[in-house]
Amino acid sequence: MIRRLPWGPMARMAGRRTLFAAPVLLVVTFGVFAVAALSPFDPVKAYAGTAGLTASQAELDQLRANLGADQPLVARWWHWLTSALTGDLGTSSVMRQPVTDVITGRLGWSALLACCAFALAVLLGTVLGVLAARRQGGLLDRGASALAYTLEAAPVFWLGLLAIWFFAVRLGVLPSGGLTDAASDTVTAGQVARHLVLPALVLGISQLPWFFLYVRQGVADALAEDPVRGARARGLAERRVLLGHGLRSGMLPVLTLIGSRVPELITGALLVETVFSWPGIAAATVQAATSVDFPLLAALTVLATAAVLAGNLLSDLLYGLADPRVGFDG
Amino acid sequence: MTARTIRGAAAAALAAVLTTGATACSNPSGPAATAADSAVVGIATEPETLSPLLGYGKDGNSKIFDGLLTHDADMKLKPALAEALPEVSADGRTYTYRLRQGVKFSDGEPFTAKDVEFTYRTILDPRTNNASKTELDAIESVTAEAPDRVVFTLKYPYAPFAERTVLPIAPAHVAAGQDVNGGEFTTRPIGTGPYLLTGWSKGEKIAFRANPSYWGGEPAVKKFTMAVIKDDDVRATRLRSGELDAAILPPALARGFAADKTRTTYAAKTFDYRNVTLPTAHAVTGDTAVRQALDLAVDRRAMVDKLLDSAGKAAYGPVPTDSPWFTPGTERAHDLDRAKRLLDAAGWRPAADGIRVKDGVRASFPLWYTTGDKIRQDHTLAFASDAKKAGIEVRTEAGTWEVIEPRMKTDAVLAGGGSPADPDFDQYLLLNSALAGDGFNNMARYDNPAVDRALTDARESGDPAVRKAAYDTVQRELVKNPGYVFLTHIDHLYVVNDKWDGPGTQVEPHDHGLGSGPWWNVEHWKPKQK
């Protein structure tokens, strides 16, 4: 079934969304500055660390002025915004490094982790969901559903610690954290693959229940509909019915889910990267937040917001393609 | 999509999972560093920066850099980038260093007096975000008088100044053209030191390799890696699995390696004290009788045994009992009866609930400790329980420094500190009334003219006998009027594989970064002869 893609309407929708994104980003960055300014953490104390405990007050005041932490909220936000628009994202105080360097050095590792986890969740969720929907109430269905609800209730950092305890401490088969072994100087594909297993597994598993439950429900509903009954009546093979009819229409809600799961993936990655010392962007976010590192925090929030908006756009585009009745008007 | 492709994909995914699992099994994280010319150590905290201009390595042992001077195993100063110890003028305000000739930075450029001048001037520049620059407050000017000679002029005579010049020297030709606070130099440092940085993955590890042209001779440990592992249990596990050759561990976990024939536990003696501030401004803790009573009522021995697993010593002041600066005779035995008599005599009488009252003031005060710090929490609770026995109520509260700071004037705090290089470094900040409430200095607002005078005499006099006498005065005054109750000095424990000759410990400060630990002199380790 080959159909010409409706490029025109799709491009128009993407354009509309991009225009809409600008005010959203503006509000979000201001919100970040406001929340950070309200936070009980003091950027000067975070910057100075233990040295701050022996520094003179005059020194701490000078540091406050240098870091711009004495400026009012709006002035700080405006300064950041105008420099960011000219391409200067500023210097991260916690990393002692330009924000651009922090992001470029870490984004790739986060993307790798998130993509692996997402692929795992979507694939495994779909397979299990279809199998469970085929025999509702069967052993697999009941077992997988119970497990899904349990996992959904389990905090992801707890899963991470559990995985470290079991695979790294008890069994000793997988490394407990980092990108490579401590003694290794170079980043090799093999090392990264081994170190990727646990964090990707934990992050993927934490996303799995959603996909599993949606696919299971979607396919189960589809199997009760007329086209399926018709297909069965025509004597089509059960496998054909299940995958060609049931799964295809049951996948529709999953497409929406992909978009709406992106924020959850990002927050999940925050915890997973921290637990596994994964040198990604999310681990930097935690540090930026607890040290009230305004430039880094703002840049990372813009990035996360853009990811969420792009995720929504993607799922709407896919939905429009999968179900032409919906169209590209949103 | 057909059933076959789905099944195919599922099989492929399963196969992928299995093969990764299998490779992982065939390749366990066993002894990764078997060669003795490579060492991997586990540390708990990492530096914020590797630039000496921002405070990295200010107390020495920075691996990548050298200071003008350095400390030997007994914390005695010895020359490093300087050729000899400095010449000090008679008025104690001019320090002249002759520099070692022929030293090169790792990029091949020669080290000269210009680099020394650049380093100190940049640190003192108000635009440089170096939080430790207060330590160099005494410097009025630093001048490169000749390529091999640097002269420091001080604002006031400052006897321990030479101790500050262990500070690492940065190359002017690299760092001068960069933004000092965020430039490339902060993460890709170049120095004269025994090691070169090969990589720094923040939150994960810092990797070094030996500097083949190091002026002090190429280190025998060619590869040196510091793995940053915050969690104590994970660090212990990775040490046991052989991935680490050495690690810092809390006493409870270090004990697990005590019977290990292939590893040695090093207990570093320290100046790292825990004390309780007794705010002068508070009606109860400002009372000298209450202060003395609390000082006698605390059972320091029990704290060392129970809280520290005996890895530490009772503390009677900032100076530990085994230091040459300690004043013998200032030890206080745990004496609850005398504490009670002192309070009775001063008019603090027990009320119906057992808590003492004087002139309508209840002997009760709050004591804060920093949230999440197990050692401070334990000390706080032990202190409160000891005080209760003497009839003084201590209300324990936990908070972050942001919460504690505005209350420090009237509320007691379980604090920590200590610096072994010179008694001036911590005592001047802790006890001088001029610094009362300045930042986190003299938190208790301790105000004792005799102590103020002794502290000034000690920092200004170049005569060791005068200095010793002055610090004796300080310690005796602290017995008469304790502005702080010192509880313990805490040992730092490290477990190291027996693969090298050379590991040992220096006396360590409170703030023990990567320069502390048995690997402070890793450049001098030699593989053991089998």
Question: Would you write up a description of this structure?
Answer:
The complex is a heterodimer of chains A (330) and B (530). With 330 residues, chain A is mainly alpha-helical. Chain A is built from 13 helices and 2 strands, in the order ααααββααααααααα. Chain A has a two-stranded antiparallel ribbon. Chain B has 3 domains: 1-47 and 187-269 and 492-530, D-Maltodextrin-Binding Protein, domain 2 (3-Layer(aba) Sandwich), CATH 3.40.190; 51-176, Dipeptide-binding Protein, Domain 1 (Dipeptide-binding Protein, domain 1); 273-490, Roll (Dipeptide-binding Protein, domain 3). Chain B has 14 helices and 24 strands. Chain B has helices at 3-26, 113-124, 161-164, 172-175, 232-240, 251-254, 288-297, 300-307, 336-345, 374-389, 401-404, 423-431, 449-460, 464-480; strands at 38-43, 69-71, 77-79, 87-88, 94-98, 139-146, 149-154, 195-201, 205-210, 223-228, 246-249, 263-268, 273-277, 312-314, 349-350, 356-358, 361-362, 364-370, 393-399, 412-417, 484-490, 492-497, 500-501, 526-527. In chain B, the strands form 6 sheets. Chain B has a 7-stranded mixed β-sheet with strand order 8-9-10-1-11-22-12. The interface between A and B is large, with 65 and 73 residues.
What features would you highlight for this structure?
heterodimer, A: 330 residues, mainly alpha, two-stranded antiparallel sheet, 13 helices, 2 strands, B: alpha+beta, D-Maltodextrin-Binding Protein, domain 2, Dipeptide-binding Protein, domain 1, Dipeptide-binding Protein, domain 3, 7-stranded mixed sheet, 6-stranded mixed sheet, disordered N terminus
